[in-house]
Specification:
Layout lengths: L1 H15 L4 E4 L2 E4 L4 E4 L2 E4 L9 H8 L5 E2 L2 H11 L15 E5 L11 H9 L18 E6 L10 E6 L2 E5 L2 E5 L1 E6 L14 E2 L1 E4 L8 H27 L1
Helix pairs in contact: 1-5
Organism: Paraglaciecola arctica BSs20135
Protein name: PEP-CTERM protein-sorting domain-containing protein
Keywords: Membrane, Signal, Transmembrane, Transmembrane helix
């Protein structure tokens, strides 16, 4: 009996520990699906579509409910992290905004919003600038977004780069990071780009099925009931 209970306990524990979740600023990454969730929306990690044009990305993912993030979506996302901006990030597709983030000694993910963003939405490319120190590397991510409401055939670009240290021994240059939203006058066309992904978003679908952890728990309870019933039957037989 003890062995059976131990096995059931391990089954439940493994099921609940199966999905690794990472959360910053109310955005949660499910590392098993590469999907970031917040406020009723799901975002696909940007490196999942790296190298694809918007049309190519939609050809693959639209059937699963994904669509290109609008300027409203992206402004809301950037405002959630802030990145030290003194004014809100706006949703005008013809506006470009850049916020420089000062270099800090050591990247503390608990307080650095760019490091948090990169952890959640992925690193889509390694910046091709000066070589950085292994102890303070440069990471970056970028994605096309926007619905081209002015029909000029161009789209917007979101880009973030961490601060880093240039390895120019015997001197070491400290380089600031940045977050920016580029208007369609400065951003590229619809892609593709080997450096950028496509920002895809969809509404969270209603849950109609029993989740994996709940299924495992129900299975465990069912097995436990069978064990109790078997022991009861055996005891009555012996009587």
């Amino acid at each position: 009996m003890k062995k059976v209970l131990l096995g059931l306990g391990l089954l439940c524990t493994c099921s609940f520990a199966n999905a690794a979740l990472v959360t910053y600023n109310d955005y949660t990454l499910d590392e098993a699906t590469n999907i970031v969730t917040s406020g009723g929306l799901e975002w696909l990690q940007w490196d999942e579509t790296r190298g694809l044009s918007i049309d190519s990305a939609l050809a693959i993912y639209a059937s699963q409910g994904w669509g290109v993030a609008s300027n409203v979506h992206m402004a809301g996302l950037f405002n959630a992290f802030g990145f030290g901006a003194s004014t809100p990030w706006d949703d005008n597709e013809n506006t470009s905004q850049t916020q420089v983030t000062p270099w800090n000694s050591g990247d503390d993910i608990n307080s650095d919003p760019i490091e948090q963003f990169l952890t959640l939405f992925s690193i889509s490319f390694l910046y091709g600038g000066d070589p950085s120190l292994p102890s303070d590397p440069v990471d970056a991510t970028g994605a096309f977004f926007g619905l081209d409401t002015d029909s000029d055939g161009k789209t917007n670009v979101a880009e973030l780069r961490s601060d880093y240290t240039v390895d120019d021994y015997p001197d070491y240059t400290k380089v600031n990071g940045y977050a920016r939203l580029l208007s369609d006058t400065q951003g590229g066309a619809f892609g593709p780009s080997e450096y950028y992904g496509v920002a895809l978003v969809r509404a969270i679908a209603p849950v109609n099925e029993v989740s994996a952890p709940a299924s495992a728990l129900l299975m465990a309870l069912g097995l436990f009931g069978l064990v109790i019933r078997r022991r009861h039957t055996t005891w009555n037989t012996k009587r």
